[in-house]
Amino acid sequence: MSDSHKPPLIWLNIVIFLSSFLTAVLVVPWYGVHYGYGLEHMFWFLICFSFCNLSITAGYHRLWSHKTYQAHWSLRWLFALGGAFALQNSALHWSSDHRIHHKHVDNNDKDPYSAKRGFWFSHIGWMLREYNANQYSDYSNCRDLQKDRIVMWQHKYYVVLALVMNLGVPIALGLIYGDIWGMLLIVGVLRLVLSHHSTFFINSLAHIWGSQPYTDKNTARDNAVLAVFTFGEGYHNYHHIFENDYRNGIYWWQYDPTKWLIKSCSWLGLTSKLRITPKLKIEKARAKQALITATNRVHQLPNARAINDALNREFEQLVGKMSDYYEVKKQMLEATRNGLVEKYERSLLKMRYQQIKHDLAQQRKSWDNLIAQYS
Questions:
Q1: How far apart are CA 260 and CA 262, in angstroms?
Q2: Distance CA 102, CA 65 (A)
Q3: What is the pLDDT at residue 262?
Q4: pLDDT of 349
């Protein structure tokens, strides 16, 4: 696209991004050398940085964009303030863009930040020009959010809230600790820049760098390193196939503080109706993707047909045993919960469960060995 045909520049965004970045890179270290920073600066930087990012990940993303759980009004109010502090537009606008992204992922004409248009575009370029001007007043894909009084309050007063949070909080901390400029630089500018780019990495790097264990139908990747910097959002391949799950990192060892926050709040009565994807569905997706990957790797081998037949047989057997296992497990849980079966019948059900569990373990081992040959 020639410069004459490119959409108009959004000068406000350019000024905010450029000035904050240059200040963080040049002025922040200069001030530190000449005047120094204390532990209080680092402490409040971490608090405010975490508050902003979790308001985006737990609030804007998993609560409002995907409706993966429900939240008490007080928590929604905090997320609204934190989202304004993060300076990433209103929750209504952010969610509208994000829902379009999921609906049309990687479509260069419809995805607002399509990764197929390159790293720069998906990271920040899409916000520097009026690429999506026609969407700025159309929130028809967020009619549910327009019924949320807190979302609409934040949307109406977003500019005021953004100014109050981004200037008021650092200045207030500066008055308390006797260093207004230091707090403005660390809690104001440095926090804002790092918050911006750690979020933007999900649109850019998380569609370029990492693995695709669940699907290769889009560019989204799982990346444990990015998960650390993005409060758990780095497990992006999983998210793009199971977007209604309140978790991104589904295993206990995966770093996902957003998931931990949402779950912890459920114990306090602040969140409810947490949605999770059934394990059978997750395992089927992993197995299917492993089958696709292996099939693509052997298609040029002279015995590709025989190998593919073997792979498909093992896949069908694996899926069958998975289905049997989770069905029997469900029966056991229901029987235990309802207490409607006799002790003898429960013993038989338990024996059947143990046998199917053993069979599934053996089938998984056979499947893993076969897949390993073509990895």
A1: 6
A2: 10
A3: 98
A4: 81
Low-confidence ranges of the chain (pLDDT < 50): 1-2
Q: What gap in Å lies between CA 275 and CA 69, rounded to an integer?
A: 6
Q: Which long-range contacts (CB under 8 A, 24 or more apart) does 7-10 make?
A: 7/129, 7/130, 7/131, 7/133, 8/129, 8/130, 9/128, 9/129, 9/130, 10/127, 10/128, 10/129, 10/130
| Amino acid 138: pLDDT | 82
d(CA 166, CA 106): 33
Distances (CA, A) of 133 to 11, 115, 195, 344: 14, 19, 25, 68
Please tell me the predicted confidence (pLDDT) of residue 2.
46
Phi/psi of residue 327, nearest 5 degrees: -70, -45
Please give the structure tokens belonging to residue 181. Answer: 């400029």
The pLDDT of residue 215 is: 96
Report the alpha-carbon distance of residue 131 to residue 147 in Å, rounded: 28
For residue 302, the model assigns a pLDDT of 86
pLDDT score at 134: 62
Cα separation of 236 and 37, whole Å?
36
CB half-sphere exposure, 51, CA atoms < 13 A: 22
Give the C-alpha separation, 7 to 179, whole Å.
42
Give CA–CA dist 74/161, Å, rounded: 16
Q: Do the strands 70-71 and 271-272 form a parallel or antiparallel pair, or are they unpaired? A: antiparallel
Q: Could you tell me the two tokens for 169?
A: 């909080």
